[in-house]
Write a structure and sequence with these properties.
375 residues, alpha/beta, TIM Barrel, Glyco_hydro/deAcase_b/a-brl, 8-stranded parallel β-sheet, 48% helix, Polysaccharide deacetylase, NODB_dom, signal, single chain, 8 strands, Polysacc_deacetylase_ArnD
């Protein structure tokens, strides 16, 4: 009985620790305007910033027990959660300042907010006077941001035992925060896919659109593609794109004893096979890496490249729902590194939807080589 009881306790503990099955997404059709010009992008951006700020403000009112229950955890690292909250507030304030610049063209969601403190006050009462035109968007947006915030704070609550993209471990790591306003970098992880498959379709589509992205490849999959085809075919596959590394296998590099060999082996493979496409960036699977790994990364002349907009195209979301999630987060953060998975079939249609719905919005796409070679 004791064995059975222990097993049940363990299973219950795992259930409590389990993450939500379906990530947050928001039907962009609920927003009543098209993003047909930069000013309308700013209107939608101001709205999403204030909607998220409202949820963030409400979250700060929870005590530790209520927060743990909200996140589905037995206990939380409250210090890390507060650090992440503070960083989120800072980004919201920076983004709202940028989004206010077009208020003379369209005053929707423009308030007399001139400081972080005033943004917090505005967030506390947001959604009481937005007008009938936006009423169909208000509650779905609040639900999206509450779920999205839970996703982020759950990762913060597990720090430092489980590292993730939610917090940098050193100033040398990059996550897109250094980009200019309205500038986004397309990145793809977990590839390449099988020959003549999703990666081929995606890179061909990007070239047709005269766009590039950074593809973080697994050394083992790259080796399989080369063995099954040819080096020339591999170079054609990534022509015009950038290629970083994700290790030899898609597994956490935080506890793996061979993590250094995984990185150096895959780095050597990419540098030898794709010298024109190689960029010195490492994307840790699941965002998990070692806190003491910076010295090794410096010796390898690599930088950890994280992301701050996750498409979640490897989840139960459809391709369009994944793209709608990305667009909502682009409006919220106004800049950043977007992560898709090129070995999965949702990435290409999601990217296509995203490009079609932002074509006139005034955003820009960061050149992958310029980013990859930057500091």
């Amino acid at each position: 009985m004791r064995v059975v009881s222990a097993l049940l306790t363990g299973l219950l503990s795992l259930a409590v620790q389990a993450a939500p099955s379906t990530p947050a997404s928001l039907d962009r059709g609920l927003w009543p305007e098209q993003l047909d010009n930069p000013a309308l992008f700013d209107v939608a951006s101001r709205a999403e910033i204030l909607s998220f700020a409202r949820v963030l403000h409400e979250n700060e009112l929870l005590d530790e027990n209520a927060l743990a229950a909200r996140l589905g955890l037995r206990q939380v690292n409250l210090q890390k959660i507060r650090q992440v909250r503070a960083r989120l507030w800072q980004r919201l304030w920076q983004g709202y300042q940028q989004a206010q610049r077009s208020c003379e063209q369209d005053a929707s969601f423009c308030y007399a907010v001139t400081s972080m403190a005033e943004l917090r006050l505005q967030a506390a009462t947001f959604a009481t006077d937005v007008g009938e035109f936006y009423t169909g968007w208000i509650e779905p947006s609040r639900q999206f941001h509450e779920q999205y915030l839970n996703e982020q704070l759950r990762k913060a609550a597990l720090l430092p035992q489980t590292s993730s993209e939610v917090q940098r471990l050193s100033a040398a790591e990059r996550n897109g925060d250094e980009l200019n306003d309205r500038l986004f970098l397309l990145t793809f992880a977990g590839g390449p896919g099988a020959a003549a498959g999703t990666t081929d379709e995606l890179t061909a589509y990007l070239r047709k659109q005269k766009l590039d992205g950074t593809f973080f490849v697994l050394g083992s999959r790259l080796q399989q593609r080369r063995d099954g085809e040819s080096l020339a075919a591999l170079r054609r596959l990534y022509a015009g794109q950038c290629v970083g590394i994700q290790g030899w296998e898609y597994r956490s590099h935080a506890q793996w004893t061979d993590w250094q060999a995984s990185i150096s082996r895959s780095q050597a493979r990419v540098r030898a096979d794709l010298p024109e496409q190689y960029v010195p960036l490492f994307r840790p699977p699941y965002g998990q890496r070692r806190a003491d790994g910076q010295a090794f990364m410096q010796r390898q002349q690599l930088q950890v490249s994280l992301w701050d907009i996750d498409a979640q195209d490897d989840s139960g979301l459809s391709a369009q729902a994944s793209a709608e999630r990305v667009l909502t987060l682009m409006l919220l953060w106004r800049k950043g590194v977007i992560q898709f998975h090129d070995a999965l079939p949702k990435a290409r249609p999601a990217v296509q939807w995203l490009l079609e719905h932002t074509a006139q919005s005034g955003i820009g796409w960061q050149d992958c080589r310029e980013y990859g070679q930057g500091e």
